[in-house]
UniProtKB/TrEMBL annotation:
Residues 58-208 form the Peptide methionine sulphoxide reductase MsrA domain. The keyword Chaperone does not apply. Residues 1-21 form the signal peptide. Its EC number is 1.8.4.11. It comes from Anaerohalosphaera lusitana. HAMAP family: MsrA (MF_01401). Keywords: Oxidoreductase, Signal. It catalyses: L-methionyl-[protein] + [thioredoxin]-disulfide + H2O = L-methionyl-(S)-S-oxide-[protein] + [thioredoxin]-dithiol; [thioredoxin]-disulfide + L-methionine + H2O = L-methionine (S)-S-oxide + [thioredoxin]-dithiol. This is Peptide methionine sulfoxide reductase MsrA.
Length: 213
């Protein structure tokens, strides 16, 4: 077990060092397809789960990305996560810039998952269950367009699943108000600063309106 942890640590460190040497610090665009997971783009590997080329990507925004990431890191089948900014117009935004609400970006989480252990529909269900999708540009005390509810789909299959899930939830009358979750194509995803990654693991007892254990 200790050997496995050592190997995993060395692997992750090597990835991060190589990426930083090639593209600098925070705010760099993260492009990943199913055959490039080994690079991980500074994403945080969950536990000691093996990295497979079969891993797929999903991107969600549902308020403060600290809590959204923590929820998905507790989800079966998720092998890595990364928090960042997407959906706006400014390239390589900083956290402070996003907080002004003028970049158009949302705080988002890129989720890497093993399709042999979970599927996109289950992740979408988890997303809707983990926040209030009826509050426009707000989650709890966090207010602003950067805290909007959004699903950024990576292909047409994800788009259809997201739309059907949203429609089914709305028809179920589970929510008294209309669901305002945006469903848009995934665009450039800019990694957030390092101190935001795995924030709940680094800061025990941190506040967040999401259901984090």
């Amino acid at each position: 077990m200790r050997l496995n942890k050592t190997i995993l640590f060395l692997f992750t460190a090597a990835v991060i060092i190589s990426l930083m040497a090639g593209c600098g610090a925070h705010g760099k665009e993260a492009h990943m397809n199913n055959t490039e997971l080994r690079s991980v783009q500074q994403a945080s590997i969950v536990g000691e789960k093996a990295i497979s080329e079969n891993v797929q990507s999903a991107t969600f925004a549902g308020g403060c990305f600290w809590g959204v990431e923590a929820v998905f890191r507790q989800t079966e089948g998720v092998v890595a996560t990364a928090v960042g900014y997407t959906g706006g117009s400014k390239e390589n935004p900083t956290y402070r810039e996003v907080c002004t609400g003028r970049t158009g970006h949302a705080e988002a989480v890129r989720v890497y998952y093993d399709p042999d252990k979970t599927n996109y529909a289950k992740l979408v269900d988890k997303f809707f269950a983990s926040h209030n999708p009826t509050t426009l540009n707000r989650q709890g005390p966090d207010v602003g367009t950067q805290y909007r509810s959004a699903i950024f789909y990576h292909d047409e299959s994800q788009k259809e699943i997201a739309k059907k899930t949203k429609e089914a939830l709305q028809d179920s009358a589970k929510f008294e108000r209309p669901i305002v979750t945006e469903i848009k194509p995934a665009g450039p995803f800019y990694m957030a600063e390092d101190y935001h990654q795995r924030y709940f693991e680094k800061n025990k007892g941190a506040y967040c309106p999401h259901p984090v254990e």
